[in-house]
Structures
1.
Amino acid sequence: MAKKPTAVRRALSAAITAIRAWDERGHKSEDRDGQEYVCLDQGVEDALQTLAKSTKGRQIATDDRALVLALDVFFVEFESWARSTDLPDVPLDGTTKLWDLWADVLEAAKPPRIRVLEPIQVNANLPGLTDKAFAKLYYLKNADGTPDTSTAIQARLNPEKFAYLTEGPHPLDKADADAIDAAWAERAAKIDEAEAEAQIDDERREPIELLIKQGLSLEQVRKIYHDLDDDQIRAKGEEVGMNVLTTSEIQIANDVKRMKITPQHSPVQLAPTGGPTNGDDTGGEPTQDEGGAAT
């Protein structure tokens, strides 16, 4: 019976589907007025945010560790890109580096390749195979890392006695697993450190209402108020009469503003000769009506 997909695998599948559909549209997204832009689709952004959330914490299946480590690297670059989208040379549909790292994620998501060493009898008397090459073939090394030709000679003379060399995990598979374990231990240490710092930061952070009024994006507010989800942050915005927009929504809104033509102001209307200029006879400063014209 097949194992039930983990939360990380389910979120990854949804992100892959969203990105594939976005690719088929030529990386185009529509704003609320139906105008098309080449930028990160909101559906893609939502799927990636869900995927990022699924990697948080310590309860990650062992089989997902290599995948989550690759996702960690991807999301560091994703956050860096998201903070730079207001710069003129930064593509709104992601950088080449970002999508190269996404390719690494997809590679890490594949089932691990199980390598197997051939029985010693197969190569013990292979013509042209030197003892040094035999030692390399079976990963026989001295303490200094050089090929252990002494053990290689003995193994070739008595293959059955040295059959244990081919038992257990392949040396490269074991090396990969050890590297993942080391990286995971380092990740856990960083989580411990981040949680300790977050506890201190929570006591110092500005009120969320003030951050929203300053115009921070949803991603920026979420980074500070990591204990709130998107719906809770948006609800806080509604309480102060503001919409909390994502980075891509802000970018689209700015693009729309740049495309609009600013209407011309009406000519200045002079007050009747000898009459009051601002509701009194002291020559007060002119005011602006709702249309922006001076009165």
2.
Amino acid sequence: MASRIWLAHRQVRKPDLSFSDNLLFSQRTVWLPVLVFHSSIPFVQVSRFNWENFLVVILAILMVTVALYVRTDIPSNQDFSGLYYADLALVHGIQVYDIPKIEALAFQVSNVPADKFQMPRFLYPPWYILSTFYLGWFSMDAAATLWFEINLILLFLSIWFLTDGWPGRLRLIAFPLGLIFLPVIGSLTVGQFVFPVLLGVSILMYALPNEHVALTVLGTVLTTFKPHLGALLVLSVLGYLIVSRSNFGQRALRSIILVGVFLIAISFPADSHWLIRYPSLLLGISSNYGQSENAALCVKCANLPISLSRWFLDGSLSKAALIALALLIALIGLFFLVRFALLKDSDLLLNATLITTLIISPYLFNYDFILLLIPIAILLRDSSLTRKMILSICYLVPTLALGWYGRAGNIALLIVTLILAVLIFLRAKSQVDVPALTAYNTNN
């Protein structure tokens, strides 16, 4: 590996990483900031000065100032480094899925001996990188601090959407409660990439019942940032909009398709071969499990199919895939029994889909379970005292188990996920069984 990195190193010019010089893009990427601005915030049109926009600018300046000048102990060499090296490659004119050249660039800035150098792969769509390209302007430590701040804001925005309609005092309490959920702390610490998905689903919980087209599109786009978590959610949103047969559904569906085409198009400047390279990168994801089918090699995974394969079968990844398929069929059958209630209530539909994803996905880590905050928050609405106590236990137990037992406490996440699946089913079963198409015949 050291020789391969050294050969690639000879082909890549050593970058100048000073903040001011990095403001100068290569000729190929000079216009990317304009595209990224419009793709990241495609619905905001600032037509006049107002205090909200002024406060956003002040907040951004403060965040950058803290990242540049305040020393922190936030680690920059863990999960975040995969995103950082992709952003660094982008602002230096390297195509974001050209792994050998990115490795050479990362090796130059890492100051790590070649025999000990490792670069995490960034396994997510090019529009994710486009939305964070500015991190490549900073040093790695400063970028890690800024990313921490961004994730914190995404978390608080998620809580804001999820607690819409809550009493003011309870809503205020929800912010620190969301922050101290241990998977959240872990995700913030290592600079994980799941917070956009958390915000996307939270936005959808607000946007679909309120028939807000712009937020529906934004939430759908954000869920695609981690495809293995968001794929089923996107399909559920599209299905919900199609079945609704409403004016809102038609407008939102058209907008999602148009924005999807736009995201595909603007990804080509980031990597002109991304339609080939990115799927190839995903097909190589099995390297995270080792060079065999032994699921036990995925020692950090926290998901039900691989756990069942380890406990009761031969521990192979192929058996885990069969278990995932069996669980998917079982969950589809279960939620099919309450399909009319799910199609009438977008919150229930999205939560059922989210829980299904967390149960069947063979590639999950404990930080991905920050998404459990969504069904817990939604189910707390209009619940009996008994169910509120159950939900409180579901919130507390993973934090206590992980804090006490470490990764051995991942089993608590799996148990809580199954409990929430049952509670979502019971909530849907309790709904009045009115045909969904009748309920949607509003033409508004």
3.
Amino acid sequence: MRTFLFAAGVWTLSGCSTGHRFGIGSEYPPYPSHIVSESGTLVQDTVGGPDYPIEQFRDAAGDVLWLGRFVRRRPNGAAIFRLTDTLRLPPVDRTRFLVTGDCTLGGTPKLELLALVRVEDVDTFRTIYSVWRVDRRTGRFVSLPSTAGVTCANAGWGTP
């Protein structure tokens, strides 16, 4: 089941001088002041389309993912993105970890996969709780019906 972060589809940016409403279709940065960035990754273009940033934030209700689409650069070179989708994550604690960009399906690397995995001291996560795919054509998160065949690299394994 999918729960969207934006009640009624909009936020009001409390720290933004423009005071514009924020939701799907809005351009960013800046970010709403009531969220805290946890992590992020970039699904780079390999199919002739735009790059997609995936950002994980925490707010009062828990963790949420944002999916954006690169739209342009500011004169100073900073990237501007358009919010295309959000995904409220199931509860994440010390026993679960979100892996982005380091998963395979049937042994084939799939940069567009994200998976909620069990934290283990292993080189490859094999206990997968949930898996989603970034649909680069639609700019949406798609929940996969099964975790079968999905594994994810533990990028920090073996480092002190």
4.
Amino acid sequence: MLVVFLDESHIRGTGYLGRCGVAVEDGQLLPMETAFREILSRAGVPLNDPGLDVEVKWSPRHGNWIRENLDANQRRQLYRDLLTLLAAHDTRLIGAIFHYANIAAWSADVNRARRESYIHVFERIEFHAQRQSQPALVVADHEDDPISTRQRVTETFELVRSGSEYLQLGSIYKHVWPAESERHAGIQLADLVAGITTCMVANQQNYASQYWDLLRGRFAYYREPDVPQRFGLSILPSNEREVFIGNHHPYGW
């Protein structure tokens, strides 16, 4: 089985929203989780103090131990070390980055962008799972409140049951499964991937570019058949997609 961990990045004030996932085979889950904790421990992060916020975040909040106790160079090295797990555990990346403020039909509606991002990501998860001949379980950070979390479960259940306009989603198990991100290495890695990729697409690359070499070439891609879903990274509007792919080569070519 494939397990796909999802998280969101929203750059407020820019009109960009991203949702990215880390797809990992179930046999790699425990080794990846163990390696994740070992890297944090080597960096001095106090994992065994339940009163501390030690979650790995692209934009950690005030009070987060990593933000408050590691300087810029230490944090950069920690994040680079963590991102090496993507290749070490043979993951594939999947995502959707939307400049929703520049999509006229969406009327700069961030909630529309969130719904559409799930459709685009689920289509690409389905395509990847089919090519791997495996079912997929999708785990995501919970929404900001319980009502929104339940709504997202309902929406994705209907999406899987009915399929999208372009694909039946028969490889995905039920719906998105919400979880507490601080308890899952996969969601925390997805947070980094979403933050880095969204910043790269949004041309806010000063910080994100330090990590792009560890993501480039890891996005799912299949040469056949000739359909949009064979590309693991969906970017809209399409003119921004072509510029980004030409300049930053997310598929390694």
